[in-house]
Amino acid sequence: MASEQIGYRGPTACAAAGITYRQLDYWARTGLVEPSVRPAHGSGTQRLYSFRDVVVLKIVKRFLDTGVSLQNIRTAVQHLRERGFRDLERMTLMSDGATVYECTSPDEVHALLQGGQGIFGIAVGVVWRDVESALSQLHGERVDTGETLIGHNPADELARRRNRAV
After folding, report:
1. Cα 77 → chain centroid
2. At 82, which helix (H) or strand (E)?
3. What is the sign of the dihedral through the CA atoms of 62, 4, 140 and 50?
4. Nearest residue to 57 (alpha-carbon basis) of 82, 88, 86, 23
5. What digits encode the pLDDT tens for the residues 29-43?
6. pLDDT at residue number 154
7. pLDDT of amino acid 63
8. pLDDT of residue 150
9. How crowded is residue 87: how many other Cβ atoms within 10 Å of its Cβ?
10. 4-163 sits in which CATH class?
11. Phi, psi for residue 32 in degrees, rounded to 5
12. I need a surface site. Which of 53, 115, 122, 138 has the fewest CB within 10 A?
């Protein structure tokens, strides 16, 4: 099934991105990373995140872990949103702690390193594969029918029974 036909509920997105539910909720309420499949509409509704949303959540977490301010992360996420998240898996995001730069070629990374200041990078392709691997072990949901899609976790008998009961 194509990744755009699968959504992930909050707890699954948290597990794959390595964040707490409190962070997820705050980032959704403040517009940092909103669920692109289904937003929450009042109490009792479930947000549904796309695969790309979960990748962005993990990128935000990595930036926070390295000390980039939430304001600079917001700017970077807004930039990604404006470019439509195209070629995300081929991108390297670099930061000197104050600014986040998008690099799409080794030459751009090299030019940035020539500045002589300390910078760090996030190879988005690596994050992409990490999220892909994590989500393959967790449950997704078909966007069109709401059916639970069971990950490759052989120990999850409860989810298998739930799907048979429907």
Report:
1. 11
2. helix 70-82
3. positive
4. 23
5. 999 999 999 988 777
6. 46
7. 92
8. 82
9. 10
10. mainly alpha
11. -65, -55
12. 115
Q: Provide the phi-psi class of 165: left if phi over 0, else alpha when psi is between -120 and 50, else beta.
A: alpha
In the three-class reduction of DSSP (H, G, I as helix; E, B as strand; rest coil), residue 9 is classed as strand
Give per-residue pLDDT as tens, 62-114: 999 988 888 889 988 888 888 776 677 788 888 887 888 888 888 888 888 88
Question: Which two tokens mark 94?
Answer: 């670099």
Tokens of 86: 């195209």
What confidence score (pLDDT) does residue 131 get?
A: 95
Q: How far apart are CA 52 and CA 4, in angstroms?
A: 9
Which residues, listed in sequence order, are joined to residue 123 by a DSSP beta bridge? Answer: 92
Q: Which residues pair with 101 in a beta bridge?
A: 94
The residue type at 147: E
